[in-house]
Predict the 3D structure of the following.
Amino acid sequence: MTLIVTAVELDARRAVARAELAPLVEGLRRELTPLLESPPEVPREKALLSRTGGRCTIDGALLHFDPYDPRHICPACGREYAGELHDRFRLYWYQMWLAERVLHAALLGVLTDDEPCRLSAATLLDRYADQYLRYPNADNVLGPSRPFFSTYLESIWLLQLTIALDILETGAPSRELTSLGARVRDRLIAPSVSLIASYDEGMSNRQVWNNAALMAASRLLDDRVLFDRALNGPSGLHAHLGNALLSDGSWYEGENYHLFAHRGLWYGERIANAAGHSLPASLDDRYHDGFAAPFRTILPDLTYPSRRDSQYAVSVRQPRFAESCELGLAHHNDQRLTSMLARLYDPTIPRGDTGRAASSADVERNLPAMGLSRADLSWRTLLCALPTLPPLVAQPLRSDLLPAQGLGVLRRDEGAVYVSLDYGHSGGGHGHPDRLNLTLVDGARRWFDDPGTGSYVDPTLHWYRSTLAHNAPLVDGHSQHRVHGALLAFADDDRYGWISAQAELAPGLIVRRSVVVLEDYLIDEIHWEGAEAHEIALPMHGVDVAGEHAKIPSPIAGGTEAEDGFAFLADTARVHLPIAGRATLLGTTSDGAQLNGWTFASDDASVWFATAPAPPGREGRMPLVLLRHRATAGGFQSVWSWNDSVIAVEREGDTLVVMRRDGSRHRHPRSPIGWTVDMSGDRVVVLSPSLRSRAGCAKDLLFSDTLRTERAAAVPEDMPPSVLYPLPTTVEMGEPHYRQSEFTWQGAGAPRATVTVTRPTRGTVLVEVEVPASQRLFVPLTTENQLDNEPASINGDSVQLYAIAGARSAGLLLVPDTNSVSVRPVDGWTNDLSVDACWRPTSSGYRLEATLHIGGGAPEFSLDVIVNEVVSGRARRRGQLVLSGAAGEFIYLRGDRNDPSRLLRFSLANV
Ligand SMILES: [Zn+2]
Ligand SMILES: [Zn+2]
C-alpha cells in the first residue's frame, strides 16, 4: 500500500535524500531534535475558535505560535496574553504542527534509516489512537470535528497522520507496526473519515481537503466505495478539477484561495495516481496550469495584485510558492515554473526566517518576502521533487489574459511595467465592487494600486470595500452593485496592445473602459450610455491636479452607506480649472519619480480633490482626484505617462494627439472597429477588437454562477413556497424540520416542537410554540458572546420568529426571561410589525406564545418559526427546528439569519 508515491519510488528516494536533497534532510532533522528527545503527550482538549482567542485585542494580529513555548505573545506590539480562550485556540496550531511532525519523523525515519525518528512517529500515532475518540464532536463552527472546530481542519490533520502511517508501513514494516496500524485504523482513521464523509462542502476550497483525506483514508481502509466517491462523486476530485479550477488553471475563488486549494488538489492527484487512477488528459492539463496560474498576474515586485479581500502586497518569495513550482516541475517540465524558480532562488535576495520549525501543516500564514533555496522547503519536496532541477533562467513576465477570472494584464519594459484591467467576475462574498478597475505599476512604484483589505475588525474595512477606494467608475455616488463585466477586446504584441471591457453598472447603463498601452504611455477611455441620465464618477488615486487652478474647500456629496466610502474622504475641495473639462494631473513618489496625466471630460463635468486612507498597514493619507459628470451618455479620456516621454496631449474632436519628448506625435482617432494609432512617419497600428491571447478561450467568458454557491442547499432558497396554508394550522416539527450540527435528528434524541397558528381576532395572528422536552437553558440577551459575533442567546433555548404581512415585517429573536419574553430584532429585517410575546414553563419543557398585530385587509401573510435547541454541557446550540423545513441542512454559520423567501404562506381569506 502506498499513498503518495509507489513503494519503488519511496525506495529510490533514499538515495536522493542522501545526495541532492541532503541539505533539506539536515534542516528537517535538526528541527525535529527537541521532539525526538522527548515525544510530547498529545493534547487532551479540543481546539476552540472564539472572538478573542489567539489574537491581539489592540492590533488584531495573530499571536505568535511557538510549539515549545505556551505563552501567547503579540508579534506586532509585544503584549502577552493569558487565559483559556487563548490556550484553546493555540491547540489549533499545535495539533497541526504535531501531526506534520509525525509525518516528518516517519519520512526521515524511512529515508535515512533513522530509528529514533521512526520510534517517535510510531509513539505519537499510538497516543493519537488512544486519544482521538476522547475529543468531543460538539460545539463546532463549520462542520463536525473532534480535535478541531471545522471539518476541513480535521481533514488536513488526518491526512498528515494517514500518510505518516503509510510511509512507515511501506518503508519499514514490522510486526509491532502491523498491530499499531490496525489500532490506528480502528480508533482514529475510520471514525475520523466517517465524520468527514458526513459533511460535504460541495465546490468550496475546503472540500478539496476533505476529498484528499477521504481518498487517503479510504485507501488505507480499503473502502473502494468511499474512494470512488472522493474521486468521481459530484464534489469529488474530478468535479473540482473540471469545474472549480477554471480552464485558465485558476481556482474560481481567486488568488487568495488558489494556492491553498491547488495544494489540496496535489494530494488528490498524487493519491489517485498512486492508486492507478491517473487523471484524464484534459483535467491533467488544467491541473498542471494550476501550478503556473498564481504567477500570471503577479506584479513586477513579485507581490500579488491585492484584489478583493486579499491581504495587501503579499510576496510570492515564500517557501510555499517555491514548493508549488517544484511540485509542478515534477509533474511536467514548464518554462513558466523554471523562470519563476530562477527568481525565487535568486542568491542575491537576502534570506530570512521561514518559520518552518513551527509550521502548521497545510494551514498557511504569510511571511515577509525572502530569498529561498530548496533546503527551505517541506517534506513534499523531499518525497516528490525532481532530484536535479532543469536550468533555471528568469524570462520576462508576459502580458496575459485570465478570461475566467476576468483580468487582463499588459506588460512593458521586460515586465517592469504592469497595466491591468480587472473587469470580470464580481468575486462573490469576498469580492469588491471594483469592476473596470485600472492598475498601473512601474517596478516598485504603485501608481494605480488595488489596496486589498486590512483588518476585518477595523472601520477602514468599509473604505477598502468601496468602489471609491479603487480606480474604478461609480454611479450616482454609490459603490457598484454586484455585477460581472464582460471582455470586448484583448490584443497585445508586447509593444502595442489594448484591453476593452464593459459592465452594466446600473440597470440599462453600460459603462465601457478601454485601455490602450504603448511602449511608454497609456490611454484610458471611459464611455457610458444609459436609458436615463446618471452621474459617473472616476476616482484617480495618488495624483493631484497640476498647473493653475483654484481649489475651493467643499464637501463632496455622495452615498451615505459606510461602503460608499465618502465618509472616509478628508481635505475635500472643488477644483476650478482654467479650461473647463481639461486637467493635467501629477503623481509623485518619495524617490522623486513622476506620473504625468492629461484628462479630458465634458465642459460641464466637475473635478474634485480629497485625501483618503493609505493602503492597509501604510501610514498617512493619499491624494485623489475625482471626475464627475452627469449625462445619459458621456465619457472621460486620460493619457498617463510614467517615464516623462510625453510632454503634451491635445484633443482634436474625438482624436487624442500625444506629443512626445522625442518630437514625434501619435494620433489616436476613434475607430468603429477597434483602436487606431497613427504615428508620425506613416506607421499605423490598428488594434483589432478580436480576442487574441495565449490563453484566450471564448467559453471562459461565460461565468458559471451555479459554481459560486458555497454549498448546495437542500432547499432551493430562491424558490417561493407555493403552498398556501389555511388557518388554523398546526405543524408537528420533527425530523424533516431539523437543521443539525454534529448529530442527526435521531442522534440528537429526536427533538420536537409543535407550532399552532390561529387568528383569534381579525387584526391578530397567534403563534403558539410548544417545546415538549427542553432543559430550559435560556441565555439572557445581555450575555456577551465570547465565541463569535452572533447574539449569545441563539446558543441557548430560544425562538426565532419571522413574519411578513403586507408591507410590514418582523424578524425577532425571542428569549424567555424570568417572567416575560426578551426580544431582539434580527439584523437585516425591518421591524414595523408589532409582536407581543409571553411564555410559561411546562412539566418538561416550555410554551411560548406570540401575537402578531397584522391589521386588516391583507389576503395572506408569511411566517417562519425556528426553535433553537441545546443541551447542558455544550457551548453552542445542538440544532434547530425550522417550520419551513430543513432536511439535509446544517446550522453552521447561520446565526439568527433567515431568508425571507423561505417563509410559509398562510391564507387570511374567509375568516
Ligand atoms: Zn498587538
Ligand atoms: Zn479591492
In short: The chain has 15 helices and 38 strands. Residues 690-721 have pLDDT under 50 and may be disordered.
